[in-house]
Design a protein that fits this description.
By secondary structure, this protein is mostly helical. The chain has one domain. 70% of the residues lie in helices and 1% in strands. It is globular. One of its GO terms (molecular function) is molybdate ion transmembrane transporter activity.
Length: 387
């Protein structure tokens, strides 16, 4: 059953204050990852930001709904931890794109979608919710000390009161608090002035050795997460929020592949779709592709005119505010469990999958395999998790 009533007259693209508010629903996930990979890899920030913005425009216009584009999370974590250079990142991105293209064109992704039950997908979403909530509460909210806690508390109260308010979108008020705080306490005019200037992405052709190395180091750890969250779980969120606009997993995996077949040649960081990002856009007001287009324009402007000092400029904006946005994205993801709460065994299995996904290395692969195996074992009566 869909979680929202069908809206056959919903436009594909709309620009209003609610779409603008929804545009920032995924900022808390994307921005720190992009900052981290630019710093660790030495990639040109202009290429990373401009191509990230272009991919948002592509996704918003293609789908006509808040279909997000996010940095590949497993990719980003490995790049940040091991300081992998850009040439290997571009090679790995091309490897991921080719892999997803094969899954899409051959129809293998459809077979996988039929195999993995909804209960396991809900568990994957819950695991992502746990990771986002942990990131928000342990790293973002405490980032600025006592003033940051006060700012986060104010943002939390504003969001609780205004969440769902179409006239006064919560995200815009919370972001306004963050901007005001940054301008008063963090802005360095000299740094901001030095950052201004026009920059364009460069052209790159990944070498065969870098494609092979990137496939082993980066693509293999990423693909299980992409299958679980970027494709299968995203398709489920589309079914939940846009039941009148059904999408196939083949289409989602095809645009995922297409973006990563273009990005490496223009210096972009590999990207995916994602269930958490769609939930974030939707939670704060996004209902059409307009929210993703507006989000993409933000990164285009940053890349074209402010990439020279990007890392210094973005630190003006307080992390506690991003933590509030991220926390509500996580809470909304967790509430998607409600449609299986009537079955104790399904709920327990989803919770188990979520804990595996969030708590183990390669957790999304483990959760996907263990959860699917347990589900079919339960169906045959071989094991039981309660009635």
């Amino acid at each position: 059953m869909p979680l929202t009533a069908p809206s056959p007259h919903r436009p594909r693209i709309r620009f209003d204050r609610n779409e603008l508010a929804g545009a920032f629903g995924d900022l808390g996930t994307d921005l720190p990852l992009l900052i981290g990979v630019i710093a660790a890899s030495g990639m040109d920030s202009a290429g990373v930001l401009i191509m990230f913005g272009v991919m948002q425009l592509f996704s918003g216009l293609w789908y006509g709904m808040p279909m997000p584009v996010q940095p590949l999370k497993a990719f980003a974590a490995l790049v940040i931890a091991q300081k992998i250079p850009g040439r290997v990142i571009w090679g790995g991105g091309l490897a991921v794109g080719l892999s997803m293209l094969v899954l899409s064109v051959t129809g293998l992704i459809d077979s996988l979608a039929r195999l993995v039950p909804k209960t396991v997908i809900r568990g994957i979403q819950f695991g992502l919710a746990l990771q986002l909530a942990t990131l928000a509460l342990k790293e973002y909210v405490p980032a600025d000390g006592l003033p940051g806690y006060a700012l986060a508390a104010a943002g939390f109260l504003v969001t609780v009161v205004l969440l769902g308010n179409r006239r006064w979108p919560a995200a815009l008020i919370v972001l306004g608090l963050g901007v005001a705080y940054g301008l008063v306490f963090k802005l360095d005019f000299a740094t901001a002035q030095r950052a201004i200037g026009l920059h364009l992405p460069g052209w790159h052709v990944p070498a065969r050795a870098d494609i092979l190395l990137g496939a082993v180091l980066l693509a293999l750890p990423q693909i299980p997460l992409s299958l679980g969250n970027s494709v299968l779980a995203t398709k489920q969120v589309v079914d939940d929020y846009f039941p009148e606009r059904p999408l196939t997993v083949r289409k989602i995996s095809f645009t995922y592949a297409l973006m990563n077949l273009v990005n490496p040649f223009l210096g972009g960081f590999p990207v995916c779709h994602g269930s958490g990002g769609m939930v974030g856009h939707y939670t704060f007001g996004g209902r059409t592709g307009g929210s993703v287009v507006l989000y993409g324009l933000l990164f285009l402007v940053l890349g074209l005119f402010f990439s020279q000092g990007f890392q210094q400029i973005v630190h003006i904006f307080p992390l506690p505010v991003l933590g509030v946005l991220l926390l509500f994205e996580a809470l909304t993801l967790a509430t998607l469990l409600r449609d299986i709460s009537g079955s104790r065994s399904d709920l327990l299995l989803a919770l188990l999958v979520g804990l595996l996904c969030s708590g183990l290395p390669y957790g999304y692969l483990v959760g996907l395999l263990v959860g699917t195996g347990l589900y079919y074992a339960m169906q045959r009566g071989w094991v039981g998790l309660g009635k």
